[in-house]
Amino acid sequence: MKLILDTDFLSSFLKIDRLDLIMRSYQVESLDIPPEVYREISQSKLLHSLADKHWIKVTPISLTGNEALLSDPDFASLGDGEKESILLALMSEESILLINDNKARKIAKKYGVAAFSVPDFLMACKEVNFLAKEEIGEIMEALKEKDFYGFKGDIEKLLLT
């Protein structure tokens, strides 16, 4: 299985120094990002946090076989990192895309990609007892503090009960 991260999801977990959590929860040995996501991260203060993560693989994308997606005006309106993340996910039958942007996630799902947001990821960790609600609360607080990540009230309540 390939686990692919978009820039926003990757940066959120880099900021709280919890990328290892993603790998352990999915039991994978590496995380894949497309070149544009690496470029976007390299233009931020987070590059140094990524430098020692040898298990992050920058994987080139292919446009072959994605003509319908490439001609979709909604897809064309996405950011470059989001587009490449979706394309990378489509290259492997067994891939999961971790992406925060609602519009990008809907487009990815429309084309058959399993795509999940931070709250989806945390809920899955809770449901399989990978994380206790106390740990989820700590992660949520860290995301709020260091990434200014906002959780909707009903989602926050579900995650913490």
Structure description:
The chain has 161 residues and is mostly helical. The protein has two domains: 2-116, Rossmann fold (3-Layer(aba) Sandwich), CATH 3.40.50; 118-161, no CATH class. 57% of the residues lie in helices and 11% in strands. The protein contains eleven helices and five strands; from the N terminus they run βααβααβαααβαβααα. The chain has helices at 7-15, 19-26, 35-42, 47-51, 67-70, 73-76, 80-90, 102-110, 118-127, 133-147, 153-160; strands at 2-5, 31-33, 56-58, 95-98, 114-116. The strands form two sheets. A three-stranded parallel sheet has the order 1-4-5. The protein has a two-stranded parallel sheet with strand order 2-3. The longest helix is centred in the C-terminal third of the chain and has 15 residues, at 133-147. It is globular. The model has no long low-confidence stretch (mean pLDDT 95).
Offer a concise description of the structure.
With 161 residues, the chain is mostly helical. It has two domains: 2-116, 3-Layer(aba) Sandwich (Rossmann fold), CATH 3.40.50; 118-161, no CATH class. The protein contains eleven helices and five strands.
